[in-house]
Amino acid sequence: LVLHNKSPQWSQETESFVLNFHGRVAMASVKNFQIVHDMDLEYIALQFGRLSGDVFTMDVRFPFSILRAVGIALCSFEPKLVCE
Predict the structure, then answer these.
(1) Which tens digits make up the pLDDT trace of 53-71?
(2) How far is the C-alpha of 21 from the C-alpha of 2, rounded, in Å?
(3) Tubby C-terminal domain: from which residue to which, for each copy (predicted)?
(4) Sign of the torsion formed by the C-alpha atoms of 59, 64, 40 and 14
(5) Is the distance from CB of 76 to CB of 33 less than 8 angstroms?
């Protein structure tokens, strides 16, 4: 099983890279991400994004447990934890 971050696509309309969160995320943020299955880029196993200033939302499904998903989401707040 191979999972990875979904790459954003360039939007001519906004002139920026975007991900489709299907209405679940309200604000652009470097902390927003989607983790997808390697063989099916439409299978979003985990998505995390900003709703407002310090309010975030997370959607999770197989193969992640809630505990693992929360751990991954928390890592987005401190990038040095992932790099060291």
Answers:
(1) 999 999 999 999 999 999 9
(2) 21
(3) 1-78
(4) positive
(5) yes
User: Model-level pTM?
Assistant: 0.85
Which run of H or of E encompasses 75?
helix 66-75
What gap in Å lies between CA 10 and CA 32, rounded to an integer? Answer: 16
Spatial distance between the Cα atoms of 31 and 25, rounded to a whole number of angstroms: 11
DSSP track, 22-70: TTS--B--TT-EEEEETTEEEEEEEEEEEEETTEEEEEE-TT--HHHHH
What are 3-53's pLDDT values in tens digits?
Answer: 999 999 999 998 999 999 999 999 989 899 999 999 999 999 999 999 999
